[in-house]
Amino acid sequence: MEIVKVFKPKNKSGWFFILFGSAVLVFGAAGTAIAFNAGFKTPLFGGDWIYIINILQGIVFINLGYTTIRKGRFFVGWSDTEIRYLLPGGKQVEVISTADITDIKLKLFEVKLWAKDTVKTLDLKDIEYRPLRRIKEYFEELQLSISS
Q1: What does the DSSP assignment read for 30-64?
Q2: Options 2.30.29.30, 2.102.10.10, 3.40.50.720, 2.40.30.40; which CATH number does 75-147 get?
Q3: Would you say 126 and 88 are in contact if contact means Cβ atoms under 8 Å apart?
Q4: What angle do CA 85, 86, 91 make, to 5 degrees?
Q5: What's the whole-model pTM score?
Q6: Which uninterrupted H or E stretch holds 24?
Q7: In 3-state terms, what secondary structure has residue 78?
Q8: Fewer beta carbons within 10 angstroms: which end of the chain, N or C?
Q9: pLDDT (tens digit, 9 = 90+) per residue, 59-85?
């Protein structure tokens, strides 16, 4: 089975963002706790607001890392007998038997597959160029084999 990853996150960058964000979050929370015990200084410049900003930065970095890791799970894969895919917006892996496919329509960022009972639409608008090109090449080959 050939599998094309839709997004290629950098090696370990997601985990780095999560760890760095967690450290900044802990630093901000500890600083905020100390500042409240000592009497929170309210001036914007020279006050204790930096700790609140650190908490927000930590949350942003953790979210960025989680999003990067989550994007790495999306794929489109195929073998001689079936097509499997998980694209953004989908919750579970979809499986289509190639023997059931009756027609294929290719658009710029969309592939429509007509099977015996259903119409499946693969929305490819958020996919990077190289994986998009490889996926569309496969469906062009499959379209030619179905029509002949």
Answers
A1: HHHHHHHHH-----TTTSSHHHHHHHHHHHHHHHH
A2: 2.30.29.30
A3: yes
A4: 140
A5: 0.68
A6: helix 13-38
A7: strand
A8: C
A9: 999 999 998 888 888 888 998 889 998
